[in-house]
Amino acid sequence: MTDLTTTVPAAATSRGERTRRVKPGTVLAIVLSGQLMAVIDNSIVNVAVPSMHADLHASGASLQLIVAGYTIAYAVLLVTGARLGDILGHRRMFLGGIALFTLASLGCGLAPSAGALIGLRFLQGVGAATMIPQVLSLIQRTYTSPGPRARAMSLYATVLSGGAVLGQIIGGILVTANIDGTGWRPIFLVNVPVGIAVLVFGARALPRPNVRDGRSLDVPGLLTLTPAVLAFVLPLVLGQPLGWPAWGWALLALSAVTFGALPYIERRVARRGGQPILPRSLLGLPGVAFGIMGLFVVMTVFGGWLFAFALEMQDGLGGSALRSGLAFIPSAIAFALVSLNWQRLPARFHIPLVISGFILNGLGLVLSSLLLRSGGNGGAWLYVFGALAGGGMAAAFGPLMTRVLSRVPVSLAADASGVIVTVNQLGIVVGIATFGTLYLNLAGALPVHPSLAFTLASAHSYLVTLSALAGLSVAGAVLTVLHHRSSSRQPV
């Protein structure tokens, strides 16, 4: 892939710039490195919470905000970041986001108090929301041919899934190592040299800003969508730890009303000659809406599984955070292998592959949870069924995302990136909040040292939770059928 070159057309570059040749493989390596940092940072903090609590004397609410602050800022600002990339240039926004994310990571690693760490975690989320939407936009604009784009999207999918697992493994190693008595701080400081490297190479190799004339912020749309997402994410992230207070339900109701008003507002923006952040020209493309819903299901199942499995391995079975992360390795390997090789199949097999992937994912989840129903550790079969679930998830996610993006013209690349990345992130949040809450409500209070009775109760909770996730995965197969029927009206 690295031997390819592509020409950035003069029409896509900013005024006065000369056409230049760019190596797509170099662009891909740089943007996926930034993507990997952001994904890892979304999961690495979980394993360090006990260490932070002891070192900073943080309250429970402070710990929740340390973990959730990043996700809240990230999810809320993704669509805004995507539109700004289309206006100011994807290169400029990506590098600016990397710089902000790296500086915030340095601040997090040196934070003297819980309050400072909370603020810096929000700043990290802003940096991630600035750079991450540019990744898909740069991939789409760099890889214009279907074959190379499919291979690039396979690597993107691998990073998206593998980074979450890798975060738990790296976090467990760094916290356990307690390098020079620094405890949890290296989980943030490790971003600094990586961020600097991405910034240096990105400044040299990424194509110059492709600023487009006539593009502007959709202020009414952003003023509607941003609070709608915030009102949706905030209670989902903080609701269960706080006992689902009344304000959380009120925010969810407000979110539903605001989302309902968004199509009307966006139509008014379009009638006035503006550029809506959710253009009908994007969501109206045959199959795109059903495809995006399918991607939401994939990430919801992934988020719920990742969270429930970590709880079951650590709190239900009494294992360490490192063991929990290592137990995900077979599923991560299977995900990577399928993601990197599915495009070898002829195009006529891609839809059956997605449908089979959803079904195999659900089967793997149910079988792996049945292994733990008697309180055992599952043995080698736990890894086998975990690999089945991970491979099935990859078979569903990679081809489906590629099919959706293949139907999006380059002129809508930034809007599509913002919508899809936001949907993916919201899917993870919904999965963690919904199915994590289901597991915790069924299992009850998590003890420091689980008894046999609690282990059996948690195993039952895990079985019910993963069965529900499997049912949702089957729903994803149904959405794929609807996507195929709708998109067949517009063959690629």
In short:
This protein is mainly alpha-helical and 492 residues long. It has helices at residues 24-44, 49-56, 60-88, 90-110, 114-142, 146-177, 186-189, 191-205, 219-238, 246-271, 280-283, 288-316, 321-327, 329-341, 350-371, 379-406, 413-443, 452-487; strands at 6-7, 21-22.
Name a few traits of the molecule.
492 residues, Growth Hormone, Chain: A, 2 domains, two-stranded antiparallel ribbon, 1% strand, globular
Please describe what this structure looks like.
- The chain has 492 residues and is mainly α.
- It has two domains: 19-214, Growth Hormone, Chain: A, CATH 1.20.1250; 276-492, Up-down Bundle (Growth Hormone, Chain: A).
- Helix content is 76%, strand content 1%.
- It is built from 18 helices and two strands.
- The chain has a two-stranded antiparallel sheet with strand order 1-2.
- Helix 1 runs antiparallel to helix 8 (191-205), helix 4 packs antiparallel against helix 5 (114-142) and helix 9 runs antiparallel to helix 10 (246-271).
CATH architecture of the largest domain: Up-down Bundle
Number of strands: 2
CATH superfamily of the largest domain: MFS general substrate transporter like domains
CATH topology of the largest domain: Growth Hormone, Chain: A
Distance between the termini: 23 Å
> What general form does the structure show?
globular
What is the arithmetic mean of pLDDT? 81
| DSSP helix fraction | over 70%
- Main-sheet strand order equals 1-2
**Number of separate domains:** 2
Q: Calculate Rg over CA atoms.
A: 22 Å
CATH class of the largest domain: Mainly Alpha
The count of helical stretches stands at 18
Q: Which strand-content bin applies to the residues?
A: under 5%
Write down the secondary-structure element order. Answer: EEHHHHHHHHHHHHHHHHHH
